[in-house]
Specification:
Oligomer: single chain
Helix content: 40-55%
Number of strands: 6
Number of helices: 14
Shape: globular
Largest sheet: 6 strands, parallel
Distance between the termini: 14 Å
Order of helices and strands: EHEHEHEHHHHHHEHHHHEH
Length: about 290
């Protein structure tokens, strides 16, 4: 099975759709926003026509008030192990988790989730608390790694065990699937240009109305903190102007792209990297066999 990764606006979805259409593949999306219903524009979700032409998994799976996690993608991909599927998405953390394996996690109740969310309002204090609880676990993660800080605290509050002990007792389950990784790279100046174009398209296609509806229907959704949504909320609350919201989306998306490139470079081994044309040729040769 192959996976196409890359920063936002790098052209991953276009490449995956081309290959899926030509070689009769299904697409497995690993994207932390496209997994939600009703978030089509902010997530740059494939068009209705594309979703109709090629079978997609991992899209429109959750309501915006439900929680997305690596286990959801892990179980879904496990069920597709015998299908001709190409993996694509910018949320490479989920792919990393699927490759490395996952430990069975305790079920998080509403009160614990809200308490940990309140702790994470001050990320440094939350990390210091985790460091005090379990120095071994905390020293292995970055103090800005909100996801792993939250997981460590969840384990401690729900099981009474420190995370390092919990993970020692609950070994990771791995998928019986070999995943070849292909990273799509794009020159920085071209990427920034495409991010600006995509952001302008999002506004033209109705981003403000989409976010307004989302806030009305799901006022407590974690998705409201996502890039492309939080900036519009600030505009709707009259905290910033429309132009400022657009500028912030572009700025925050560029920063996200940088973090994604760094993550992909440091977390994956044996990666085939190239531009659109180069990876298209490599993957076409793979599927022609």
């Amino acid at each position: 099975m192959n996976a196409i990764i890359g920063s936002t606006a790098s052209g991953k979805s276009a490449l995956a759709f081309y290959l899926a259409s030509k070689y009769k593949l299904d697409i497995f999306s690993i994207d932390s926003l496209s997994v939600y219903k009703y978030i089509d524009i902010a997530s740059a979700k494939p068009s209705k026509m594309q979703l109709h032409q090629v079978k997609h998994y991992g899209i429109d799976v959750l309501n915006p008030d439900e929680k997305c996690n690596a286990k959801l993608f892990f179980d879904l991909l496990d069920s597709l192990s015998l299908k001709r599927v190409i993996i694509v998405g910018g949320s490479s953390f989920y792919l990393k988790s699927m490759i490395d394996g996952l430990s069975e996690m305790p079920q998080v109740d509403y009160n614990t989730a809200k308490y940990i969310e309140s702790l994470l309002a001050n990320k440094q204090d939350a990390y210091n608390l985790l460091l005090k609880i379990d120095e071994v676990y905390a020293s292995k993660i970055h103090q800005n790694d909100t996801y792993r800080i939250a997981k460590g605290l969840e384990i401690y509050f729900l099981t009474g065990k420190i995370p390092s002990v919990f993970f020692a007792e609950n070994k990771k389950q791995k998928l019986d699937i070999k995943i070849n990784i292909f990273e799509l790279v794009k020159p920085k100046d071209m990427l920034i240009k495409d991010i600006k174009i995509r952001t302008n398209d999002m506004f033209r296609n109705g981003l403000i109305d989409e976010v307004r509806d989302l806030v009305t229907l799901y006022p407590h959704s974690q998705t409201l903190k996502a890039i492309g949504i939080k900036e519009i909320i600030d505009f709707l609350d009259s905290k910033i102007t429309l132009d400022q919201s657009k500028e912030l989306i572009i700025k925050n998306t560029i920063q996200l792209a940088k973090r994604q490139r760094t993550f992909n470079k440091t977390q994956f081994r044996d990666v085939c990297r190239g531009n659109f044309v180069e990876l298209k040729e490599v993957l076409e040769n793979y599927y022609k066999v």
